What we know:
- The structure is a single chain.
- By secondary structure, the chain is mainly alpha-helical.
- The protein has one domain (4-134).
- Helices cover 87% and strands 0% of the residues.
- The model has no long low-confidence stretch (mean pLDDT 93).
Amino acid sequence: MDITNLRRQHSEIMSMAKYILDNIEKRTIHQNIQEIVKTMNVMAGKLKVHLMNEDEYLYPQLLNHSDAALQAFGRKYAEEMKEVTGAYADYKSRYNTTTKIENNIDGFNQETKQVFKVLANRIDREEKELYPLLG
């Protein structure tokens, strides 16, 4: 399976996460809030496309594999990803407008760091554990 596209998507998603985290670190949320909201919403779309690609191509390949260990690995990863997706969707719905961020800037900062850490850890695991199994 060619995973070049999945890796590119990971890179794009993490680049957007870095932009938002950099603004938190530099305390420039207010100055760049419009672009942050736009980035967060574009990131949600990219995550959705990425997950659709995994669900359509990656997980079926693992779940239908002749090796039972790879099947179990695929089931585990697919289930875990549902949790990550849910966490990001909840986060996005809480902070997908400038007003929502401005009304709870401390919560936004804290949740962004938490959710993006979970996302980064998941992407790192996919890159190091999952993708090498697929070529």
